[in-house]
Amino acid sequence: MKKLLVLLLALAMVLSALVSCDLLEGNLRSDEDEEEEEERTTKRPSKETATPVTEGLSEALTEILRDTAEETKTFDDAVAETIFFETLAPETMAPETIAPETMPPETMPPETMPPETEPATEAITENLWGDPGFSNVRFDGFELVFLTRDEGEWSTREIFAEGYQAHQDTLSEAVYTRNSHIYDEHGVIVKEYRVSTGEIYTKVRNEAYAPTGDFHAVISNVTDALNFTNNTLICNLSSEEASAINFTNSWWDQDFVESMTIADRVFFANGDLLTCDDDATFALMFNKDLATERKLPDLYKVVTSYQWTHAKFYEYQQQAFCDLNSDGVLSYDQDILSYVDSLDGQYSLFIGAGLRLVSKNPENGELEWSFNVERATDVTDSARAILGHKSFVSINDLATANELSLTEVGERYFGGNHAVFFGDVLHSVRRMRGFDIDFGILPYPMYDQQQGGYKSFMHSAGSVLSLPQSAKRNMETVSTMIEIMACYSQNTVTKAYYDELLTTKNGRDEASEPMIDLILNTREYDPAYYFGWGSAYPSLIGAFDPSSNTHMSSASKKLSMSVSRHMDRTIEKIDRIYSELEYGY
User: How would you label 201-218 residue by residue, b for 16+ Cβ within 10 Å and e otherwise?
Assistant: First the structure.
């Protein structure tokens, strides 16, 4: 009897297996079995019309099958699962073949888990981030803190954003996205310690003498960074300790690093990590509608054909102004002026003409006086013509006369359709986008076509990065993350910054994008300007004033000695104090 029951049980299990998995639909058959099965299946009823398995069996057998149904189902499932996983080829068992939604949350692959920072990261693709060379590096839990500027419109915007929902503007979204990616990929939390500009020097000085570790990097203007350098308050970024920072990479402004390397050391830098250095770069805006009305040519083509010179600018200046009320007096709020600018814009005429006071000797790499007096004399004559034209107005003068800020005066001139050309920093472009005018962006003109290229001027208000002396405690981590952060900023923060500059009320100013590229890629950095050696720049720029009697030849003789003396003292001091710090002598 027991044998019969065992036989019946085995038969039941086989029959049930045929029904539940149909021998796995032939997945386990050999080629010959498949041919035989194909012949059999042509005679097999469809599932809808198939005869029940128990039909025609005795009541006793049916009852036995019913009583053992649960045991049989369990056995069938176990057998089927075993056969399935033992016989499938390994390559068909890759994790991606299992639908993620069928997996318990704790076993889901990380890439399928919804990110915590979902709004900022869902549209990001891997190629957006570039390759900083540290793809597998993690410093889990490390908080990278930047000391940043709280200075109204010049406040640091590109380092930290509190949250996606609180910052809907393009740049803040990009900053938040980048920082979220840094946390996901490297475990590092980016923070900022924001103080007023007047406090930054004190904070960095105190950190040098009584380290707190409250911050690891500093974002300051160039003037403060130079004061840090003169007092050994910051690190040498070109040291072996900071070798993770590679200034040959495209996300650093290599011209700035090369020009501002002092005593064979790099103390501060700019590049894609920052946007305030771009904000402080001068450009010429032009009113497109007024330029058309005054019959000016396609100014973009004038620039790209390298015809944009002092002479051309003066020619268009004469053509552009218009005394609308015919009273014989050009008024900023009644007529059309050709050109308005600040006194700082005169530096752009100087630098834009290819002039500088100090350059590096290509043979020995040392800084030396390199002022071209003959060229400067010619440039002075053309600058006096441009600035002395009756249709030019300095917004400095009007700001004083009307008790307004430079920003307010510039906006009233240019934003009110009363000026064809407006010279100011790129930071002003964003403000002007709020006005109902259609304008484009140009570089300042060259002096002549023989110059060979355009040159742009960055004001010392621009931001730079430096590291306090206390960063040496975590230099490997800090320098590595600075390099990573700069790389990740190239296609996120910089792109968002361009979007802000180019976004108008009615769309996007696509034609100005290559002009912004040209402006930012041709910046000229003269240490004599930033260090203020011999107060030479204000003296020489003052010669551009149409009422000035200064002759460049006589002025340069006096200034060359003063600049050279101050320059040598600065280099000698920095080399000495940093050698003592680094080598003990």
Answer: bebbeebbeeeeeebbbb
Closest by Cα among 90, 98, 77 to 21: 77
Report the first-to-last Cα separation within the chain, whole angstroms.
104
Strands (E), 202-301: 217-221, 282-287
| HEC letters along 41-84 | HCCCCCCCCCCCCCCCCCHHHHHHHHHCHHHHHHHHHHHHHHHH
3-state SS class at 282: strand
- Strands 367-369 and 358-360 come out as antiparallel
Q: Which residues face 221 on adjacent strands?
A: 463
E strands of 443-533, at which residues?
456-457, 463-466, 503-504, 507-508, 523-524
Give phi and psi for 470, each to the nearest 5. -70, -15
For 358, 411, 443, the CA distances from 514, given in Å and listed in that order, are 29, 24, 11
Going by C-alpha positions, the residue among 413, 404, 457 that lies closest to residue 439 is 413
Instruction: Report yes or no: 542 and 272 within 8 Å, Cβ to Cβ.
Output: no
Within 10 A of 117 (CB to CB), how many other CB atoms are there? 17
Q: How confident is the model at residue 573, as a pLDDT?
A: 96
Q: Are 174 and 495 in contact (CB under 8 A)?
A: yes
d(CA 577, CA 212): 23
What is the distance between the alpha carbons of residues 472 and 480, in angstroms, rounded to a whole number? Answer: 12
Contact predicate 501/516, CB 8 Å: yes
| Residue 536 CA to its chain's centroid (Å) | 34
Q: Which two tokens stand for residue 44?
A: 């097999």
The predicted pLDDT at position 396 comes to: 79
> Tokens in use for 432?
């002007």
Are 332 and 412 in contact, with CB atoms under 8 Å apart?
yes
Which two structure tokens, joined as six digits, stand for 19? 């029904």
253-to-268, 426, 521, 536 alpha-carbon distances in Å? 11, 17, 9, 25
Given a cut of 70, the residues of the chain with pLDDT beneath it are 1-126, 163-167, 585
Distance CA 179, CA 86 (A): 46
Contact indicator for 501, 426 with CB cutoff of 8 Å: yes
Rounded to the nearest angstrom, the gap between the alpha carbon of residue 544 and the centroid of all alpha carbons in its chain is: 36
Residues 468-494 pLDDT 10s: 999 999 999 999 999 999 999 999 999
By residue count, the chain amounts to 585
Say what the pLDDT of residue 405 is.
Answer: 76
In this prediction, residue 564 carries a pLDDT of: 96
Q: How far is CA 301 from CA 306, 349, 419, 452, in A?
A: 8, 20, 21, 16
User: With the C-alpha atoms ordered 327, 546, 462, 504, is the resulting torsion angle positive or negative?
Assistant: positive
Q: Tell me the HSE value of 305 on the side-chain side, using a 13 A CA sphere.
A: 8
236's CB contacts (< 8 A; 6+ apart) are 242, 265, 266, 267, 578, 582
Residue 301: CB atoms within 10 Å: 10
Q: How many distinct helices (H) and strands (E) make up the chain?
A: 24, 15
